[in-house]
UniProtKB/TrEMBL annotation, chain B:
Involved in beta-(1-->2)glucan export. Transmembrane domains (TMD) form a pore in the inner membrane and the ATP-binding domain (NBD) is responsible for energy generation. It comes from Bradyrhizobium denitrificans. The lineage of its organism: Bacteria, Pseudomonadati, Pseudomonadota, Alphaproteobacteria, Hyphomicrobiales. GO terms for molecular function: ATP binding. Pfam families: ABC_tran. Keywords: ATP-binding, Nucleotide-binding, Transport. This is ABC transporter ATP-binding protein.
Length: 299, 261
């Protein structure tokens, strides 16, 4: 439990810190209430505050098991979880599983984003395409994606293709929805500025529509990535011989709860890390945004 | 010369926003269009800007019919409408993308200095005050060197002090190249301070009610007795424009066989 919360807080604070360095270029941001050492300490203390609860819970559980009040067989103490991770890492098993899962998520995310962006862009920009295609996509969206599993296995086989396809389906919908919604809600007043300066169709897309939809698009990418991680577990439940999802199933079948918790912890760390990478990669594009996070980061 | 000939606009929902509006505006003239809500002021401006097509009638600039946004026509809206993802300097240079970079930079820098915001070149629009943002919008429109500049209630969202400041500033900028200004406003003082001619419109449907020439030399003293007199004159015309029993100028002109002009 502790490790699930920990990376999440660490990552967010790193982003806020980064945001502040970017902000420093602007003269307005130079005047922060605290300066030097004090500000640095506050910045360091804030994530530590968030660590307090999970760490004390973990420590408490460790002590309870150590004192013999619980045998810790079904809920392994943190020390046992870390031993398991260390063992997996030493044998090279861990790398193999992580690489398998990461590449599935990566490829599925890539296909899902490509399809979602292409169709979302077309349906957002072109009304006729939207009226033709969107109802079908909305109907497909109503199907719980896990319901595709048996069909995908029949169509694409039990190996990688069906797994990647399932992940791609999961990623597709938020990206598609996010992009069409963002295009449709672009401010008409801003578009008029483009018209006044007589932008051609492609120039209008490049200079007005793209930058205007970017913030919402980035959010949809992050939602898509989150769903990608959800679906990789489902995909790896259907007959995988490697991957973090396989570790979960294997741990259940052989009665190794420590291995299950270890896999969950690694899922949390890698999932958060990829989300954080995506956020960093897109942050330079969104520097202009007047967002809440920015204000609270500077305060 | 900007010519409006019987410009009529009927919206798809059947509202007659503008009915047979005609006017001739000389290069370098400052025209204020004033009237109650629903008198078609903004509709008129959007037709001249080429943003909306008129249902009937034509808008011509130097003999060229305007059906789409035109390079010689600029517009400033009620809101600054700056692009939030571009810095102030890039916003001003937005319409100059066809120029070589060096020339664009030079013109942007000059425009920024002219509106007194040289130190804000690299700032994001969100960091500007309302008055500063509107100045950037003015600079963005003027840097394209338009022959006609349309202003749709450009200062109505600003506080009284900033508004007065920007009115004076606008006149100052206008004196540089003397473009034609067509200003839509609901502020009588603003109309009298800025305009050579004030066109008073009446609503339902939007028509021209009365035309008042402001024979005052610039700069105009807002406290002069003559200034007050013109203000009262425009106000009275506005009051009468809302009274449906008084015939409007267009009606009188129609009766006189179109010889009014």
């Amino acid at each position: 439990m502790n490790a699930i919360v920990t990376p999440c807080i660490l990552a967010r604070d790193t982003v806020l810190t980064m945001t502040m360095t970017v902000e420093l270029q602007a003269p307005a941001a130079a005047a922060t209430p605290q300066t030097g050492r004090a500000a640095w300490l506050t910045r360091l203390a804030r994530p530590l505050l968030g660590l307090l609860l999970p760490l004390s819970l973990a420590l408490g559980w460790e002590l309870l098991v150590w004192a013999g009040w619980s045998n810790g067989r079904l809920v392994p103490p943190p020390s046992k979880v870390f031993t398991t991770i260390a063992e997996l890492a030493r044998s090279g098993e861990l790398t193999r599983h992580i690489v398998a899962t990461l590449s599935r998520v990566g490829i599925g995310f890539g296909f899902g984003v490509a399809a979602g962006t292409l169709l979302g862009g077309i349906c957002g920009y072109w009304g006729l395409a939207r009226r033709l295609v969107d109802p079908t996509i909305q109907a497909l969206r109503a199907i719980p994606s896990i319901a595709w599993v048996p069909l995908f296995i029949l169509w694409l086989g039990i190996f990688e293709t069906s797994k990647v396809a399932l992940i791609a389906v999961g990623v597709f919908f938020p990206v598609y929805l996010g992009l069409t919604g963002a295009i449709l809600s672009v401010d008409r007043k801003i578009v008029e500025v483009g018209r006044i300066f007589r932008l051609s169709g492609p120039a209008m897309i490049r200079r007005i529509l793209l930058p205007a939809v970017l913030p919402a698009y980035v959010v949809s990418l992050r939602v898509g990535l989150g769903l990608g991680w959800m679906f990789v577990v489902a995909a790896e439940f259907m007959g995988a011989s490697e991957g973090l999802g396989y570790l979960l199933i294997d741990g259940q079948q052989l009665g190794k709860p420590a291995q299950i918790v270890a896999a969950i912890v690694i899922f949390a760390i890698i999932g958060k890390a990829t989300d954080w990478l995506l956020e960093i990669a897109t942050a330079p594009l969104l520097r202009w945004q007047d967002s809440f996070a920015r204000q609270s980061g500077a305060a | 010369m900007l010519q409006l000939a019987s410009v009529t606009k009927v919206y798809p929902n059947g509202v007659h926003a503008l009915e047979r509006f005609s006017a001739e505006i000389q290069l370098g003239e400052i025209i204020a269009i004033i009237g109650g809500s629903g008198c078609g002021k903004s509709t008129l401006l959007r037709a001249v800007a080429g943003l909306d097509r008129a249902s009937a009638g034509t808008v011509t600039l130097d003999g060229e019919t305007i059906t789409a946004p035109h390079a010689k026509v600029g517009i400033i809206f009620q809101e600054p409408r700056l692009l939030p993802w571009l810095t102030v300097a890039d916003n001003i240079g937005f319409g100059l993308s066809e120029l070589p970079a060096a020339e664009r930079r030079e013109r942007v820098a000059k425009a920024l200095a002219r509106v007194g915001l040289a130190d804000k070149a690299k700032v994001w629009p969100r960091e500007l005050s309302g008055g500063q943002a509107q100045r950037v919008a003015i600079a963005r429109a003027l840097v394209a060197q338009p022959e006609v500049l349309l202003l749709d209630e450009p200062f109505s969202a600003l506080d009284a002090f900033t508004r007065k400041d920007l009115q004076d500033h606008l006149l100052d900028l206008w004196a540089d190249t003397r473009p034609t200004l067509v200003l839509v406003t609901h502020d009588v003082e603003e109309a009298v301070v800025l305009a050579d001619r004030v066109l008073v419109m009446r609503p339902h449907p939007g028509r021209l009610f009365e035309e008042i020439t402001i024979n005052l030399s610039r700069p105009r003293d807002r406290n002069a007795p003559l200034f007050e007199q013109f203000k009262r004159h425009v106000l009275t015309a506005l009051d009468r424009s809302l009274d449906r029993t008084v015939p409007d100028m267009q009606g009188r002109r129609d009766a006189g066989g179109g010889l009014w002009w």
